Amino acid sequence: MKKVAYIAGGILIGFVLSTSAGAFADSVKSLVGKKVSGEYTVIVDGQKLADKGAIIDGRANVPVRGISEALGADIEVEGKTITVTSSTTETGLASQEENKYEGKSRQTIEMEAQNLKENVLRLYEAEKASLIKEIDQAKTAGAEDLVKVKESQLAETEARIAATNADIAQAEAALAALK
Question: Quick one: 150 exposed, middle or buried, by C-beta within 10 A (0-12, 13-18, 19+)?
Fold first, then answer.
């Protein structure tokens, strides 16, 4: 009788283990069988990483540890969570005297400066012109409340223009330092 109980218990335990292992395997996303487009060299701020990146099913997969070390960030793995902390977030904000473009590659700085000039600044300038036009129309219509709202929006837009111009100046200073 004991033999039958042991056999039945073994079968039951085997069934439970095999079922739960299959359910666990289904919950884990695997890269097995996914389309890999190839290995790629990863360059961070002009520095080539030893580890390679890959495009898997149309998504870029890069070595987080290598990138975080190249950027001077801390990486912490706790359970199933990977936390990357840059040095600027430890203090809350980077100091205003620090040039955020220092240490970046020439190409990166040039692209960011071009984007600031051609896209961001142009957008803010167009917004400013539109607000000035709306303020004039509101003044003509005698809508003083609307004038106050639009003047407040104009002040915010001018502050964004000033901040963007400061970013452009920092980028140009970083480019000048690279020469």
Answer: buried
